[in-house]
Amino acid sequence: MSYIDNCCINALRVVGAEMITKAKSGHPGIVLGAAPIVHTLFTKHICISSNDEKWFNRDRFVLSAGHGSTLLYMMLHLSGYGITMDDLKNLRQKGAMTPGHPEYGHTPGVEITTGPLGQGIASAVGMAIVENYLSAKFNKPDFNVIDHYTYVLCGDGDLQEGVAQEAMSLAGHLGLNKLIILYDSNDIQLDGEVQQANTENTKMKVEAMGFEYIRVEDGNDVDSLDQAISNAKLSNKPTLIEIKTIIGYGAPNSGESSIHGKPMPVEDVKELRKFLAYNEPEFTFSDDVRKYYEDNVKTRGYNACSEWNHILSTYANKYPEDYQEFQKFIFDDFEIEDLNGIPTWEVGSSESTRKEMGAILDWLSTKLPNIIGGSADLTASTMVKGADGIYGQSNPLGRNIKFGVREHAMAAITNGITLHGGMRGFCSGFFVFSDYLKPAVRLAAIMGLPSLFFFSHDTVCVGEDGPTHQPVEQLTMFRCMPNTNLIRPADSKEMTAAMLLAFSHDNTYPTIVTSSRQALPNLAETDQDKVKFGAYIAFEAKKNADYAFISCGSELNLCIDAAKKLKAQGIDVNVVSMPSMFLFEKQSNEYKNSILPKGQKRMAVEMGTSMPWYKYASYVKGINEYGKSMPIKYIFDEYGFTVDKICNEFLENVR
Amino acid sequence: MSYIDNCCINALRVVGAEMITKAKSGHPGIVLGAAPIVHTLFTKHICISSNDEKWFNRDRFVLSAGHGSTLLYMMLHLSGYGITMDDLKNLRQKGAMTPGHPEYGHTPGVEITTGPLGQGIASAVGMAIVENYLSAKFNKPDFNVIDHYTYVLCGDGDLQEGVAQEAMSLAGHLGLNKLIILYDSNDIQLDGEVQQANTENTKMKVEAMGFEYIRVEDGNDVDSLDQAISNAKLSNKPTLIEIKTIIGYGAPNSGESSIHGKPMPVEDVKELRKFLAYNEPEFTFSDDVRKYYEDNVKTRGYNACSEWNHILSTYANKYPEDYQEFQKFIFDDFEIEDLNGIPTWEVGSSESTRKEMGAILDWLSTKLPNIIGGSADLTASTMVKGADGIYGQSNPLGRNIKFGVREHAMAAITNGITLHGGMRGFCSGFFVFSDYLKPAVRLAAIMGLPSLFFFSHDTVCVGEDGPTHQPVEQLTMFRCMPNTNLIRPADSKEMTAAMLLAFSHDNTYPTIVTSSRQALPNLAETDQDKVKFGAYIAFEAKKNADYAFISCGSELNLCIDAAKKLKAQGIDVNVVSMPSMFLFEKQSNEYKNSILPKGQKRMAVEMGTSMPWYKYASYVKGINEYGKSMPIKYIFDEYGFTVDKICNEFLENVR
User: Fold this and answer.
1) What is the CATH number of domain B3-304?
2) Which ipTM value was assigned to this complex?
């Protein structure tokens, strides 16, 4: 290793330790152990440009081991991302640019919010998919306008997560050779030695999944690290580079789990300095170190970006149509000018909203060539698929991703697709199995990503498949998530609105749309234009009636019929359709009061747990038990979701 | 294959197809493809006794591919479990003994509810752990009182699931050689060819994880199947037997995904009969077939069970103390006679409830030698661990399971431990990562299993680690789950009660207990004896006061202080501690009204999403956004959870 590499790595180790010790909180183990890895990656390989942070062809770096944020912040500091030394000193403090784990949209240069283990690896697969797709679509024999790598730094914990294993299995299958995972393999995890919990043969396992495996015996050996990354770039497979490191290298308790997540005492930082023979003042990167990063990250990246811009302008001249299209992909600049040709269903007809969803999505795919997605082996049931055939090595321009039965990774990959930019990701499954992918939906919500999740079979009306397949509490699960738009449409008009809202530009939240297994009537009372308000009065027995039903999805038609029946008996009950509580809560108080007037007594009706509705209704007809296996024809009666029973329950409990 | 084997398999295929066709719902693909597998397993290997369904040393059979329930029901029918031919004809109908997916506790002989893919494999690992532990504890050189296998039938989809991969990785690590996974490898999944989504090298992958791999080239070859299972039994590792089958074997659309989940038309069943040259009447097992199962499953199992009882009585004579202890394990017959020595904390002292939880659990482990569990690499933080050292090959009597960073499998394994019987499983992690294991908790709730989930760091008070580590919506997520007891204790007295409730006998639901990261005051107002009611009045400013706070966990002490402050201002506000909504909802209306009197105006206070509280309170002070990275000292002010702010918010919005 060169003298300057050594200087840089020592500086990263000491300043990183100082940051954490000052913060009185953080994870020094990975900082000390993996400093040479990020140093080598950033100074010798990664192509990013702090002058143009969002440069489209930049390499993507995913810190899957998000607790190593200190390393990332130092890289961003040294590489010109406007992270100051004060920011570094402010690690993990209130309002800091340098929060405990990397936060997308908060800190410039952070590509993805990480922390929950495994998610970063899985989302990186999504990023690599977009790179692969766009390169197949836009590159020419003489122009590689898309040609970048997705690098991941992960630890032992990351690789133990099922979500990572699912995603790597798919990455290997898809042959995503631009994906390079740097595995900080230090034999220690939070609770002690890795071998107490895991004794896999990593090489064999990842090779079995279609990865190239490269091993670096000494994680302090910059030359070996450099060579390993160079070799990985040449592979026609995704690569995992296992790098043997020592957790907390240089600390008195190096090699022990105690260094993982506890700040070093000041004395130990002194010991570290002594061990490394490091003499710079506290919180100091020497000019040499700064210059090395200036030259080898910032300037190199600036040059690469400039060169790319030059190539792109030449490309624009030679392939003007492709260039136009490419720009539209980059800026997500596809407008749905009008709805001509979008599938519609006549009022009075009957259809499942899953079929409507599938048909509308197919239509949207013709208008939005930058959407890509698929299902976790359930397209035949959810009706959700991408266009242009199955995406894969033999058809890199397919937009239908066969995720396999890998729901969790599917969602994280969808986040990665959306994060990369240039394309928008969607995915689908049975609503009951949304449980499997909830952790990734949460990250989309935290990041404010417009990832799209389409779930079918949204109630116990699944029927014969029984309780394991009958969602009951999932509507509540997503409605209680901050910054998450769950839309549950009642018929084709509402479904059309939901899908258009889902794909609209500038959403700063994920959207979940649920659909029914069973056919539903296409109602005269629904209003496509009002879905965006989250709730509206679908049936008005009387202005500001004393009573109202609130409902959505497959129960709305029952409530309308119930209200009509009660009207015939001289009882005025309005019906509010509330497909999205999230959108409703965003409306003005005036609007909210116009839909849910004060003093009105309301009964909510939904085939799911009652919890979300008590905010709006004094009485809730829900399902607060697990479902039962039986044909759908018995379901409605079993749970009392018939017009007569709803009327009776209203008369007994609300009126 | 012998003539009778052929007769049996043909019968299973035809009757199975007839069942599904009659039901107009179900999955014929696996029934036709895997019939020889279950036939071979049941008639030549599995030791179960329908005379004594819960025979403790029976082999456990886990149908991880739960959609193959038809196969299981036919096995149970032929093996004397009281499943009648009418039950078979009633497949998937309302109230049937034969629901769409196998349901534990509903159908005799069903060991576990399955359907959500991957869960069965993972829970089987838990069963195998108990077998392994108990055999190490109770077997003698001359007596194997515990000596049985855990068999799993799974398909392609199961193995693609992260939860299965996590569990298998742990099973390999633990060397659970009595675990035998029969992999119905038919190259087809719901949406088409497996190779469209997955091209792993299964052999290499499972060997990398420490499994024995055996391949059966022809899934119709009973002799090879028989031999493969025999060989698996001899291995010192867990085994995966990959069995090449043809999905829907014998159906006109065999080998195609269309046969997976759609009933065969009557015409196709006729074709199947022709193909198999099968001439028995509809819904008929010939006497030969019945006799074969009678002899080779029922009688063989009966004899094995009788022999075991004989061995056990000899064992009882020779090792009376071990026998006594063994019986106590089998019947979960450990009583906590008194609470002498249980850790206590003085009123006025301050401690985090996670430390209290850990200390109480350590004490419980000394009283309850049949509890086993651990953490997903977070014992150092959650304080939850099992006793007697790390469970593993070198210490099979350790009761601390190091699950690794495998949260999802951890929960499913905990279910398997509890399902096996003889031991009770618990597990732990950060509350925010409860998301990862929600699907398994759901199965515990559906099955009515008393699995135990202990989560620490239950609010945004996690602090510096930021939004990815700060739970916000998880309390709602579990409270809205049917049949799930979430307890959120406020201090050591409530924590003690919570842990005793969690481990009490006869719970027919899983229990989740959450704990705080930060120290909390041990309150004079809490009442250990009243936690079991779910809610109680902790501070009574005045009987039936016009106002009340409802709260729990780390916010209860704030509410009590706020009520005292308001009392000093002449405003009477009671404080209800509500650690468990689930238990409260089980109380009589009289009790509920005594705690939450009609007409009282209530404000709920909790550092989590507001949704659960609207049922009980007109105003909710919650946190309906994701957290932020900052030291805990700023958190309370940031979110307004201080005594002053609570008082002000009460005065402005409630009074």
Assistant:
1) 3.40.50.970
2) 0.98
